[in-house]
Amino acid sequence: xxxxxxxxxxxxxxxxDHIMLGTDYPFDMAEPDPVGxxxxxxxxxxxxxAKVAGGNAERLLGMKARA
Length: 67
Known about the structure:
Blueprint: H1 4-14, H2 34-40, H3 46-61
């Protein structure tokens, strides 16, 4: 996605527990800083942001992220 409006819409429609951060790496096709994009989004709770930024991937894959 390319705008905060799209991100908020997805979270409002499907719930933050169904959205994960992804990239096109190593291809230069989209947002160059996806984590920065998430951090700059307004109107999204810290809990929802944590789910999208990695919590959902941890849950889905049954893994814990390294610090």
